[in-house]
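Please fill in the sequence for the structure shown.

STRUCTURE ENCODING:
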């Protein structure tokens, strides 16, 4: 047990050093504006390695209006209204989640995400207050491929937890589109784009870490497909 504890401590030290090195090689205009151009707050857990890594990625890609917040361990036991208050979100509609979907009807030779128009996996960002509609995504992908792939070859279902973790590097309730282990194409529900104000919340890489981000900057960086894929 002591050896495992020491190993975990060493891993955190390595991650911290990697983050420091990443920050040191960022273009000058990113490094000089780190404390001025974002609404980023320090977190209070796990030495902040995840937050630092994702912040580095965001700033390096021109995202400046974002915010990390730690939440209580019983966050998901609370109502949406309580979660809204914890994050100081504008409304419960601004609380969103990222889910990993797998195309269960993809051909046997389609195993990765190299073709974003016809990927084995997709990450869909939807509101907690909405119900995801897989059929609209199926229709979107069919049209995206100009009807060259039969509709029956698209069947989006929730990916197994193990697959989600392996693909994203994030545990359940901590999944975010930023800094994923695999470059999975992202689908953003159109309802989120229409939110006012245009600043929404999603997972931040850890179960108790949440990321708030300006919608326009999220779109510019992630370049998601924007699809009307939910119902209230």
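FILLED IN BY: designer on duty
SEQUENCE:
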């Amino acid at each position: 047990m002591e050896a495992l504890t020491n190993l975990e401590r060493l891993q955190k030290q390595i991650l911290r050093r990697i983050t420091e090195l990443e920050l040191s090689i960022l273009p000058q205009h990113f490094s000089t504006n780190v404390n001025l151009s974002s609404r980023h707050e320090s977190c209070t857990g796990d030495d902040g390695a995840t937050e630092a890594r994702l912040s580095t990625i965001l700033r390096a890609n021109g995202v400046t209006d974002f915010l990390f917040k730690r939440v209580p361990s019983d966050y998901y036991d609370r109502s949406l209204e309580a979660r809204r208050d914890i994050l100081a979100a504008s409304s419960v509609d601004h609380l969103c989640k990222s889910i990993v979907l797998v195309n269960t009807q993809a051909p046997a030779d389609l195993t990765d995400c190299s073709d974003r128009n016809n990927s084995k996996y997709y990450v869909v960002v939807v509101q907690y207050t909405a119900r995801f509609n897989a059929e609209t995504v199926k229709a979107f992908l069919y049209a995206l491929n100009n009807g060259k792939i039969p509709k029956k070859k698209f069947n989006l279902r929730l990916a197994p937890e193990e697959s989600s973790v392996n693909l994203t590097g994030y545990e359940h309730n901590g999944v975010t589109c930023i800094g994923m282990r695999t470059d999975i194409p992202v689908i953003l529900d159109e309802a989120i784009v229409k939110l006012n104000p245009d600043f929404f919340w999603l997972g931040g890489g850890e179960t108790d870490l949440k990321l708030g981000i300006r919608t326009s900057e999220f779109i510019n960086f992630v370049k998601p497909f924007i699809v009307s894929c939910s119902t209230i």
